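Incident review: delayed structure delivery

Summary: a single-chain prediction request sat in the queue longer than the usual turnaround. Root cause was a stuck worker, restarted by the on-call engineer. No data loss occurred. The affected request and its eventual output are reproduced below so the record is complete for anyone auditing the incident later.

Affected input:
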Amino acid sequence: MLGRGDDEETRRPLPVSGMLAAVGTLGVGLAVLTTLTLIGWMAAPRGPFGEGLPGVFRTACQLWLAAHHAGFAIPGGRVGLLPIGLMILPGALLYRAGLWMARDADLRLRMPARLPKGTPRDVENARRRAQLVLIAQAGISLAAPYALLAGVIALVSGNEIMQPFLGEALVSHLLLAFITGSVATARTIGPWRSMLRLLPERPRSLVAGTAVAISLMLLAGTLLVLGAVVVNFARIQQLSEVLSPGLVGGVLLLLLEVLYFFNAVIWGLAYISGPGFAVGAGTLVAPTGVKLSAVPMLPLLGALPPSGTAPPWVMGVIAVPFAAGAVAGVVTARVAPTPSIEAAPLWGFVCGITTGLVAGTLAALSGGPLGGAGLAAVGPSPWEVTLSVTLEVGVAAGISAGIANWWLISRRPATAPEPVRRAGAVIAKAAGRVRPARGAHLPGHWLDATEAETQPIPVIRDDWADEHAAAAAETFDDMSARRGTATPRKPAPNPPPKRKDIVDETDDRGGHVIYVDPYAWDRD
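Output delivered after worker restart:
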């Protein structure tokens, strides 16, 4: 008990742990980038890194802002074409910081306990909501101080040539820290599959389908870019020799190309989806054809196809989004089947919409201006990629989801839904406790034909004794006996002869019961 009390006393509040994690992430990230910048400055002391160590630190701060995809203003334009691969550094640091924050604040103990099987649905939903709220609180605790510190870095990193946009720096740092910190906090609950179970069934199916479609399209884009690099490797090597960066500069140039490789993969996604991408104003690289002008001196751009009409077989790459949509539709239907067949295609198309939105967001991150004039538009168009991917993936996912859902329903035994089964079990259990009385007949309407076939209709007979008169006579005889004045009872007279004009309808004198049709009056 004493140890437990000490743990509770040393546990920090969540905002304090988040602030410490944010400071540590910024410190480690700037230290790494400052080291790389210092190596480049030593190799080229009169290069673009500025004069002295203050210029080196200012350049490292600019690289840190660029790693979060925060743009810069330069004379005559702006720089928005930033390497996506550079986001791996702050993303990994923020993920580790989120895990540390969760352990430092003991978020695992604050999580609602895992519920046993058979728990009511409302209790399970309440636990899920509590976990999501705690995850969001952890993400905000890390993202808020992280964004404020990024604002300070943006203010001190400007120079005469490059001025960072303060708004973009705040928003980009806030979003990246919130997403990464929330994922890291959710990871403390259990494995990745447990993280998906935090979502309700329908959003979980859309997330799974969207992830599958985007992953397949990115894989196809990666293979396309690698194939282009292999085919045009001689041109890429020639451009590298023209730059003649030297040993240290060659290593830094290779690192820059690796970081921009992720942008090229997204451009490949835009290419296979149809709209393609641009490498400057008035240019286009698409399956329908290629139109290029002067391109930047980046060796990786040597993998671009030459200008002209593309071969007809190149149009076959457009089949990739449809194939990815077909697989995503099957995944969506398997995760959350629908009881009605016509609803499954609708959810498949919704999966296409979410996939289009994710693809458009990636297209916006992978492109941007690279100065002014001819390089003001580089990369794919976000809205064109969104529209194309939505239609291609959505149509294919809707068809495959409908077929997969029909297949699942046809193979599944016909069982009532869970609420109906539970209600039926409760009713059967309650009905089993009720025992009907012996000889009791089921209630029914007097014109119920079933009741008329099972119950004889009573008929009053003329020779039945008067029960009331017999009871009164016995009462008076008892009173007279008590007083001693009882008079001898007269012998009962002989029963009157049976009347032949009254027919007993309950017996035909042969042992058979005769039933009367209650609907006879209606047919007369």
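Verification: The two ends are 92 Å apart (CA to CA).
Action items: add queue-age alerting; document worker restart procedure.
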